[in-house]
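Before we proceed, please read the two lines closing this message. Report back on whether the structure tokens fit the sequence:
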Amino acid sequence: MRNFILKIQQSMRGIVSITTVMIIGTVIMETALVGLVVAYLVGEQGMGVRASYSAIAAAESGVSDVFLHIARNKDWVPSISPYTITVGNFLVDVAVAKAPIDSRFNQYTVIATGRALTKKVQIQGIFVVDGYTGSINQQSLTEL
């Protein structure tokens, strides 16, 4: 009888050992999984900041494109529909409106929408063109 009890006690130790190993293994796996998720999210935030900067730069390039159109032709009449340009790997939608201020000055309002990955940035630029001297003054450049 005593041998039988010793055998039962020894087999119970094995069951306790397996349970302990399983619990410790689960805790280690959960810790590793949480570490992977945190690393992924931190990496995505870095990509988001980079994409945001790229979208801003692309939108500013759209405003600069309109400035060049005006500099080449002071009487430039923009199209009613927006046009799209490619800056590097990014797309920019550019919408331009021209409005006369008086007989001498014209105002161009530009809205450039830069897109990079999941980020989208709109920048509005306002230019005033002097019809007599041909000078171009940038009145504002703001992010919408």
Q: What stands out?
A: The beta strands are 83-87, 90-100, 105-116, 119-130, 136-143. Residues 2-143 form one domain. The longest helix spans residues 2-72. The radius of gyration is 32 Å.
